[in-house]
Amino acid sequence: MRVLMLAGTQEARQVAAALGQVRGLTVIASVAVATRAPSALGVPTRIGSFGGDAGFERYLDREGIAAVLDATHPFSAGISHRSARICAAHGLPYAQILRPSWCPGPGDDWMFAEDEAAVAAAVPEGARVFLATGRQRIDAYGAMPGRTVLVRQIDRAPDAPPPFEDGHWIVGSPPFTVADEVALFSGLGIDWLVVRNAGGSSSRSKLDAARKLGIRVAMIRRPLQPEAVRLDSVAAALGWVRRLVMDPTRG
User: What is the pLDDT of residues 193-236, one digit of tens each?
Assistant: First the structure.
């Protein structure tokens, strides 16, 4: 049985490591952007887009894919909607690993925003803002005049500055501990933290640091996800695939 896993998260790496040992199963991982070494997944890996709906359909047919496990980021909703729709049209089992959302707890000071524009409207002038949402949609915030915006960039900073009136790159490589984040935010004088509600434990340290320092958090809500089989853990994903190997009709 050949399963395509749409990768890009910590869960994807954990699932790939476990499924690579299952007899009668071939797992092929697909990574949209090569931000990490493909060999880290431990299974055959392709890199890049499929070329739209038609390209994805051709790939599924050409490679004899029997099921699709979606372990992409919660904010890669376009990929998830497309994959769920095409799998349903072709009668292929599809499931999405969707980690639980973050929720505020005692001591947290969060405001929820629908998108980047809503964040820009909520953050007051004079604020020192730490942007931890990546730069894929950085233009959507606008220039954010009157605020200092520090944008975290993994590994190296681009040549051009961020597109803000007063913007600066902050370069760092994960993982970041709570102590790391507390020291960074304190040193930079941060009073607003902007994040997307990715969920999971691996990148939660910035939220714990914000709580310790009394930093206001602007939390961007997740986009709408497809109607599909939903798995909230690595263990659930492994169980779903193993059941398919035993009985391919149980999608």
Answer: 999 999 988 889 999 999 999 999 999 999 999 999 999 999 99
Long-range contact pairs involving 168-177 (C-beta distance under 8 Å, separation at least 24): 170/130, 174/202, 174/203, 175/202, 175/205, 176/203, 176/205, 176/206, 177/205
By 3-state DSSP, what share of the chain in percent is helix, strand and coil, each rounded to 5?
35, 25, 45
pTM (predicted TM-score): 0.89
| Cβ–Cβ under 8 Å, residues 104 and 110 | yes
Mean pLDDT of 177-203: 96
Who contacts 189 (Cβ-Cβ below 8 Å, separation ≥6)? 128
What is the phi/psi pair of residue 171, to 5°? Answer: -95, 135
Which residue's structure tokens are 């990929």? 79
| Rg for the chain, CA atoms, rounded | 20
* CB 177, CB 112: distance < 8 Å: no
Going by C-alpha positions, the residue among 69, 67, 7 that lies closest to residue 38 is 7
Quick one: average pLDDT of 109-127?
Answer: 98
27-41, 174-188, 216-230: lowest mean pLDDT where? 27-41
Alpha-helical runs (H) found in 73-232:
77-90, 116-122, 178-188, 205-213
Of residues 71, 68, 96, the one with CA closest to residue 1: 68
Rounded Cα distance, 202 and 11, in Å: 10
Tokens of 233: 């853990």
